[in-house]
Specification:
Length: about 110
């Protein structure tokens, strides 16, 4: 073989090549830290932003994951009113509760 043979590189040489490559990449790397909105597409951006921040029930017609299924239908099954005696219990005093309240007040 008349061609040049590649020298075998040890770990130190491989590491120095890697360090040099990283330095070259960092020298030419430019970070863009400023953000601006394209004025010609502002309404599209705002619509997408608002849609991304909606709750899943308003974004999708059906739940996408199993965790969405829990609590997907969050509306109450029965409309709540203050006159419904099944859910609102008013405080009723009887002779037993009146006696107990007087006994508790007297002991203090």
């Amino acid at each position: 073989m008349a061609g040049k043979e590649k020298p075998v590189l040890d770990i130190v040489h491989q590491n120095s090549i890697h360090v040099e490559t990283i330095r070259k990449e960092q020298r030419y790397q430019k970070l863009h830290t400023e953000f601006s909105i394209n004025p010609h597409r502002t309404s599209d951006f705002i619509d997408a932003f608002h849609k991304a921040h909606q709750e899943p029930t308003k974004k999708y017609a059906m739940p996408l994951t199993e965790s969405h299924e829990i609590g997907w239908l969050s509306a109450p099954l029965i409309p709540s009113t203050r006159n419904d005696r099944r859910f609102h219990f008013s405080r009723i005093s009887t002779d037993v509760t009146i006696h107990q309240e007087k006994a508790l007040r007297a002991s203090n």
